[in-house]
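Data availability (excerpt). The following record was deposited with the supplementary files.
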Amino acid sequence: MSRSLAAWSAIAFVAAFVLLAIAFPHLPAELPVLRNPVTGHIAAIAPKTLFLVFRVPIMNLIHGLMALLMLSHASQFLSVDRRAGYAGLFSGLFLTVALKALSEAIEMAASAAQALAPYTGILRFATAAVVILGITISFVRAQKAKLPWLELKLPLFDKLALIGLFALYIAVVVASTQLAIRA
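Predicted structure:
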């Protein structure tokens, strides 16, 4: 991954947390926990807490760390084309998750400003567009590294790290739904 891509991704992750920290006191007393991604209909809400506000960027950061861990093994691919495809996939996913984190933070922060209320649909669309475009570009870049990845040999520590990150993600999702109240 290029240094500039890594830097922009890190900036987007940090900016998401900073933006939500600034917006926190101004956010509504109840926030959406579950929402239909297509219609935007809120299916469940919960009282505003630090956990509830920062859970989405934390979940995105977990995804980003998983992508970085996988990216760290690109050197195992001896073929330059396969290495580039594999690295393109996971660097693209890392950037996509970072931009998604920032986009969702902007969307949530906008809910604190009445003047921005009419734009929430556009912000939701922007988040979806970031995800769709980012995943599409990542998978196009990965064409040179088609599965199976026989070259890939993850050490036990990395396998356990991936399992731990996934378990942490599931724990955040479960804790979020436990807080939810049907809307």
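Summary of structural features: The beta strands are 30-35, 42-47, 181-182.
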